[in-house]
């Protein structure tokens, strides 16, 4: 077997198959392999004309068909299957070869794998890929981590097959070891928040205006022409206007209201807890999915828990719609601001040196959270690469400032009328918390010192202090 493939893909389910086709369509001779040969055969049978594929039944033949340094994309189920494929690959590879894990790995696994393979002289590039099967085929957003040297040869190929916005590839080197998968994880967390916020906006329009799904779909389509323009708003307009063929009802009304999750939202929240970063929008979105799936609890509560809620009295329909739009946009800015804080904190913790502006740039196309407003985030980090808070960038301060009165009206009306808006409300609470001159955390510190002698600092002089609460209440410097 002559080693002439420029890249190889093992794992040919929907994602791997489409990525392999994307490489081939861009003129790369692409080696393809799957544990069960049937998927490899069907790829060649159905799409062999996409480009130059080299199919192999065995892993050994697959590896032998790739030119050195080999670039092997692993696109299998995350977790154990990825470890199994790596274990099979490693004895067949040589120093300087590159394994690209393009699955949805948890970043600590990527850090572990990268460290283990580095000892063997093999580069391990944990790579976030977003955009689902459509993106994999036509241009995803790609977030590669690993050693910078590996990006020198791999980067141009990945940039080539990635989505492009204004001619700029939606792919860049993210940072060492697990940085790529970390950024993909936060991307997914932000996606959770984005989706929850859209769902809350839909619910408010439905309950507040009594509007039909069709009408709300039209409102979203209108919003998609402005600042909110994004893939998720676009598909929301589409989904809401879709009619179920069987019943003739709005499709959204025949879907069971239990949102599932595969785990990246949960990972994002777990990591934020570890790092001590408040990502309330993402956390509320994750918990809202969990609440929707809390079947026995919901059954015990529906019709039982008193609401004592008012009823909507909307006199100006257009003003209400505009309030919801502004509340949505402001809450969205908070969710992104928090997500970028998390990236900054992890970058610091793990020494990744992640360029946040570049992350916003590569999310502009190909991925699920692609949106016009990501340009604004890139611009904010270009103005100040060390920006401590995205919300504090002049552009965001201005737009959120313009929306904050609407935001307060919507959150308070929702509370008064008994409509749950966990992401809208928690985002506003975060906004008010982070801008507060003084927080009641002083009382918490005092309580902690009272019951646990945990000490406190004073506003009027440096040092760490403790009060003898149960004795004479004298203060000592710790
Ligand atoms: P998948 O359903 O997650 O995985 C199926 C693939 O894994 C098949 O090729 C299967 O081979 C292989 N596999 C499973 N266990 C294996 C093992 N022990 N040894 C070798 N191969 C094994 O496929 P997918 O939906 O295409 O996703 C692939 C990866 O991309 C996942 O990590 C996923 O999380 C990630 N991802 C998916 C999406 C999406 O929209 N689907 C988006 C972004 C990222 P057989 O055919 O032999 O069973």
TrEMBL record:
Alphabetized GO MF terms: NADP binding; phosphogluconate dehydrogenase (decarboxylating) activity
Annotated NADP(+) binding sites: 11-16, 34-36, 76-78, 104
Entry's EC annotation: 1.1.1.44
Pathway: Carbohydrate degradation; pentose phosphate pathway; D-ribulose 5-phosphate from D-glucose 6-phosphate (oxidative stage): step 3/3
Residues the record marks as active site: 184, 191
Gene3D superfamilies (UniProt xref): 6-Phosphogluconate Dehydrogenase, domain 3 (1.20.5.320), N-(1-d-carboxylethyl)-l-norvaline Dehydrogenase, domain 2 (1.10.1040.10), NAD(P)-binding Rossmann-like Domain (3.40.50.720)
InterPro entries in the cross-refs: 6-PGluconate_DH-like_C_sf (IPR008927), 6PGD_dom2 (IPR013328), 6PGDH_C (IPR006114), 6PGDH_Gnd/GntZ (IPR006113), 6PGDH_NADP-bd (IPR006115), 6PGdom_BS (IPR006184), NAD(P)-bd_dom_sf (IPR036291), Pgluconate_DH (IPR006183)
Binding site for substrate: 104, 130-132, 187-188, 192, 262, 289, 448, 454
UniProt keyword Oxidoreductase, yes or no: yes
Ranges for domain 6-phosphogluconate dehydrogenase C-terminal: 180-470
Known role: Catalyzes the oxidative decarboxylation of 6-phosphogluconate to ribulose 5-phosphate and CO(2), with concomitant reduction of NADP to NADPH.
Annotated protein name in UniProt: 6-phosphogluconate dehydrogenase, decarboxylating
Gene: gndA
């Amino acid at each position: 077997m002559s080693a002439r493939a420029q890249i190889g893909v093992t794992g040919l389910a929907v994602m791997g198959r489409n990525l392999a086709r994307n490489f081939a369509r861009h003129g790369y001779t692409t080696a393809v392999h799957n544990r069960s040969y049937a998927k490899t055969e069907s790829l060649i049978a159905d799409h062999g004309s996409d480009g130059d594929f080299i199919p192999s039944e065995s892993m050994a033949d697959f590896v032998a068909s790739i030119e050195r340094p080999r670039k092997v994309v692993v696109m299998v189920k995350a977790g154990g299957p990825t470890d199994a494929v790596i274990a099979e690959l490693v004895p067949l590879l040589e120093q300087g070869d590159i394994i690209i894990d393009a699955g949805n790995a948890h970043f600590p696994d990527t850090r572990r794998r990268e460290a283990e393979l580095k000892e063997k002289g093999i580069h391990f590039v944990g790579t976030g890929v977003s955009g689902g099967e459509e993106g994999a085929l036509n241009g995803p957003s790609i977030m590669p981590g690993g050693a910078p040297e590996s990006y020198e040869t791999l980067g141009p190929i990945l940039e080539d097959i990635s989505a492009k916005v204004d001619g700029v590839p939606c792919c860049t080197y993210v940072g060492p070891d697990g940085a790529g998968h970390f950024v993909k994880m936060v991307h997914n967390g932000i996606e959770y928040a984005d989706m929850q916020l859209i769902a809350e906006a839909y619910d408010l329009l439905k309950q507040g205006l009594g509007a039909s799904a069709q009408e709300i779909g039209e409102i979203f389509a209108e919003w998609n022409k402005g600042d909110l323009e994004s893939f998720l708003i676009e598909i929301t307009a589409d989904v809401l206007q879709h009619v179920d063929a069987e019943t003739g009802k709005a499709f959204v009304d025949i879907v069971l209201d239990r949102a599932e999750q595969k785990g990246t939202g949960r990972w994002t929240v777990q990591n934020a807890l570890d790092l001590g970063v408040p990502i309330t929008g993402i956390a509320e979105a994750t918990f809202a999915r969990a609440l929707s799936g809390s079947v026995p609890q919901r059954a015990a509560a529906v019709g039982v828990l008193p609401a004592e809620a008012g009823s909507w009295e909307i006199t100006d329909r257009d003003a209400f719609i505009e309030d919801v739009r502004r509340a949505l946009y402001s809450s969205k800015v908070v969710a992104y601001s928090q997500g970028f804080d998390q990236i900054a904190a992890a970058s610091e913790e793990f020494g990744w040196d992640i360029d946040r502006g570049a992350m916003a740039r590569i999310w502009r196309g190909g991925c699920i959270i692609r949106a016009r407003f990501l340009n604004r985030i890139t611009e904010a980090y270009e103005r100040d690469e060390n920006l401590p808070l995205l919300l504090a960038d002049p552009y965001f301060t201005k737009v959120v400032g313009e929306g904050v009165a609407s935001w307060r009206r919507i959150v308070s009306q929702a509370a008064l009328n008994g409509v749950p808006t966990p992401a809208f409300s928690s985002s506003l609470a975060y906004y008010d918390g982070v801008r507060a001159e003084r927080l009641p955390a002083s009382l918490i510190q005092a309580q902690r010192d009272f019951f646990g002698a945990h000490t406190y600092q004073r506003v009027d002089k440096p040092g760490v202090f403790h009060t003898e609460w149960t004795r004479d209440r004298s203060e000592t410097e710790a």
